[in-house]
Design a protein that fits this description.
single chain, Four Helix Bundle (Hemerythrin (Met), subunit A), mainly alpha, 5 helices, 62% helix, globular, 2 strands
Length: 159
């Protein structure tokens, strides 16, 4: 993942509440899958970058599994789906075929829509406090809207 994408994800994480964080993890998963697919184009075995992207996507799934609350019955079902997707990604590495990427992507996209709807309904405050405020639209570039970080000089730290 290039630096610009990492910066976008970092900014989103700093402004997110607990359910938006799950949606961001899904977005990261899909970004890694897109990177992995490019390495398998034209029937190639896969590049080192695509294999790294698969490993990172698997780590995102591991994080999603760790975030489950097993007091609820649905968590067991989600754990099974995440575990199955991880095994499909592992098959991509040892079989050198991209088939598992598409299977995992299909399953995760079905869940993604549901989590996105839940995130829209969640009006809780962002989890991170004392982060920089990001405002879009104060300045306009030639082709897009620029974002400006407005920071409080103390950000919660006093001496």
């Amino acid at each position: 993942m290039d630096g610009a994408k990492k910066q976008v994800f970092t900014r989103r994480i700093t402004q997110a509440n607990k359910t938006e964080l799950i949606v961001i993890l899904y977005d990261m998963f899909f970004a890694y899958l897109d990177e992995a697919k490019t390495g398998y184009e034209n029937g190639l075995r896969g590049t080192d970058e695509s294999l790294d992207a698969i490993r990172h996507a698997s780590l995102v799934l591991e994080h999603l599994k760790d975030d489950l609350n097993f007091r609820y019955e649905i968590s067991g079902n989600l754990f099974s789906i995440y575990d199955f997707c991880q095994r499909e990604l592992a098959k991509c590495i040892y079989q050198a075929k991209p088939d598992g990427l598409f299977v995992a992507e299909d399953l995760m996209k079905r869940l993604y829509g549901s989590f996105k709807e839940v995130a829209k309904a969640d009006t809780s405050a962002p989890l991170m406090k004392n982060t920089q405020k990001v405002t879009a639209g104060l300045t306009y570039g030639r082709n897009d809207v620029s974002e400006v970080s407005l920071s409080d000089s103390s950000r919660g730290f006093y001496a």
